[in-house]
Amino acid sequence: MRPKVFITRAIPENGIELLREHFEVEVWEDEHEIPREVLLEKVRDVDALVTMLSERVDSEVFDSAPRLRIVANYAVGYDNIDVEEATKRGIYVTNTPDVLTNATADFAWTLLLATARRLVEADGFIRSGEWKKRGIAWHPRMLLGHDVYGKTIGIVGFGRIGQAIARRAKGFGMRILYNSRMRKPEVEKELNAEFRPLDELLRESDFVVLAVPLTRETHRMIGERELKLMKPTAVLVNIARGKVVDTEALVKALKEGWIAGAGLDVYEEEPYYHEELFSLDNVVLAPHIGSATHGAREGMAELVARNLIAFKNGEVPPTPVNREVLEVREPGFGK
């Protein structure tokens, strides 16, 4: 019998078609998140699991899935998975880096520019009829935003996505600052980027973009103290994880003018609603769509399939998260 894979939400068909050539495939077709009790039931007889950021994959799931050998996360981040526990049990974990880098970097810039130039406010100004009502075709002080070209961008997290954001910043003639766990001299030279401790980066930057994974160290790394270090004309963009920022502190910063604006694609809980935050004009909001292009999502689906097929063939998957699992179990089903 072919190994069985359960997919917790319908991914692009190219990935499903690839998997069907090698696996017995079941897909949760409902657009809503799979209920926890249903997930625990569905994994009872699966060999592989394809999951999303919204699903918690932990000891309870592993206990319910005695045959489970690999979890393929349809995302770059994997903070939804207890990787340490998976490794102890000999369960491989993979993710989908690289294929969504450019789409996500593009979207970071979408948020940055839209926030800096007050694009959503301008759109609403027209759609509401307010422009026509006021009867002013053009005014020198109408909807003034902030310049981007030639300014300083600070990128917190300088992995693939952070570096891609920096490459785009070069086209805007920007001074590039970055912060990461380790300095990257070769990339500094390539991009003419300057390393800064976080506090210095926040003080010096006109635009701060968060592109870090969610870890114990990065949880709420941007709070009231950090927001007060930023310029009152600065813009904060978060494409990382919602819990990297203290939302209540951000609301206060936006209301009281500690910073000029924010562009958000991620939130502390998802789906999410925050009446006070969402009522502010100086924040641009998106529902976690950083990688939402046809090309990126299809690339993610293909990489998920390649990881599972490689594992089935007894090979190390292309993008393992917990390579140390090799010390516990060789790749392949039935081993």
From TrEMBL:
Record field: catalytic activity: glycolate + NAD(+) = glyoxylate + NADH + H(+)
Localisation: Cytoplasm
Domain named D-isomer specific 2-hydroxyacid dehydrogenase catalytic: residues: 5-322
SUPFAM superfamilies (alphabetical): Formate/glycerate dehydrogenase catalytic domain-like, NAD(P)-binding Rossmann-fold domains
InterPro entries membership: D-isomer_2-hydroxyacid_DH (IPR050223), D-isomer_2_OHA_DH_cat_dom (IPR006139), D-isomer_DH_CS (IPR029753), D-isomer_DH_NAD-bd (IPR006140), Glyoxylate_reductase_GyaR (IPR023519), NAD(P)-bd_dom_sf (IPR036291)
PROSITE patterns assigned: D_2_HYDROXYACID_DH_3
Chain residues that bind NADP(+): 158-161, 239-241, 288-290
Main location as per UniProt: cytoplasm
Boundaries of every D-isomer specific 2-hydroxyacid dehydrogenase NAD-binding domain copy: 110-290
Keyword vocabulary terms for this entry: Cytoplasm, NAD, Oxidoreductase
Active site: 241, 270, 288
Cellular-component GO terms for this entry: cytosol
A Gene Ontology molecular function term of the record: NAD binding
Enzyme Commission number(s) of this protein: 1.1.1.26
Pfam family, one: 2-Hacid_dh
Family, as annotated: Belongs to the D-isomer specific 2-hydroxyacid dehydrogenase family. GyaR subfamily.
PANTHER family, alphabetized: 2-HYDROXYACID DEHYDROGENASE-RELATED, GLYOXYLATE_HYDROXYPYRUVATE REDUCTASE B
Record note on quaternary structure: Homodimer.
Listed name of the protein: Glyoxylate reductase
Gene: gyaR
